[in-house]
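Hi C.,

You asked whether I'd gotten around to modeling the 122-residue construct. I have! Everything is below, sequence then structure, no commentary in between.
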Amino acid sequence: MIVGLGIDLTPLGRVNELAQRHPQFVDRILTPAEREQYASFSGQRALEYLAGRWSLKESFAKAMGTGIGPAVGFQDVEVIDNQQGAPVVTGSPFDGRVHVSVSHTATLVMTEVILESEQKND
């Protein structure tokens, strides 16, 4: 049963500007495993990865109904690309299935998160 849905749209330029102005930005947004994957990219692909993770975590927090803050922080959600390049949630405070999708244009990243409970409502 779907218990949460979150969507986010983020301009790549905004994330690039934040990363340039604040050297700690990447460490604040990405978990250690995400930073390891991020380090394998460069240029536009690295920016897309960083903006995608920012946006996915925003979408996740919206699906939880909290927004980013004390209940759900950037380090509480981890999304790693699998062998085929698809994003997979490998860590989160949600006890159930988490479905994620990310899409990019030249200037935007759009993400969606669906939270699915293992329990059925009778």
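If it helps when you're writing up: Helices lie at 12-21, 25-29, 32-38, 43-64.

Thanks,
B.
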